[in-house]
Amino acid sequence: MARTKEFDPDAVLQSALELFWRRGYEATSVTDLVEHLGIGRASIYATFGSKHELYLKAMDRYAEMRDPLLLAELSQPGPALPAVRTVVRRFAAEAASPEGRLNGCFVTNTAAELAPHDPAAARRVEISWEHVETPLHSALVRAQAQGELPEDRDPRALARMLLVLLQGVRIVGKASSDPARVRDAAEQALALLD
């Protein structure tokens, strides 16, 4: 007769996400996971697979938490440009916050640590970036159609510029003790939308 799990896999996955987010993939050992999650190594492997598979599942969980929020923010009816500005300013504020400095962005951290040599992680990073760029592009197209954005602006190029800015803001926010760096960069980028 099979034993039932004595832990909540969903809660354990969330806890693993938090540990990987704080420490990174390479700096988190299986022993660290066992201690942090409070379950045995065999239970981790039986439920989630290898450490790498657990990390990828944690990335998927992060995307499930973050991506719908951005889409909801940028797809509200009415003027679109204020929503874009709010998103950019929110990213900058999060990056400059104490938690942002401590953890950074899980996707940005993965892009720097794993994406260059890990195709599965790189795919997830690209998908996450697409989930940022696409709603930004849609909002900017709407803004242009509504007369908020000048006709001579390229919504796709602006969305890509904002994506790159947002990722850069996450890196600089994590490493810099001066929050004005990310705020000033965000405001300069937003000035390009005028």
TrEMBL record:
InterPro entries assigned to the protein according to its UniProt record, in alphabetical order: Homeodomain-like_sf, HTH_TetR, Tet_transcr_reg_TetR-rel_C_sf, TetR_C
Species this protein is from: Streptomyces candidus
Signal sequence residues: none
Residue spans binding DNA: 29-48
Keywords noted in UniProt: DNA-binding, Transcription, Transcription regulation
Start and end residues of each HTH tetR-type domain: 6-66
PANTHER family with a match to the protein in the record: HTH-TYPE TRANSCRIPTIONAL REGULATOR YJDC, TRANSCRIPTIONAL REGULATORY PROTEIN
Pfam families with a match to the protein in the record: TetR_C_13, TetR_N
Protein name, UniProt field: TetR/AcrR family transcriptional repressor of nem operon
GO MF terms, alphabetically ordered: DNA binding
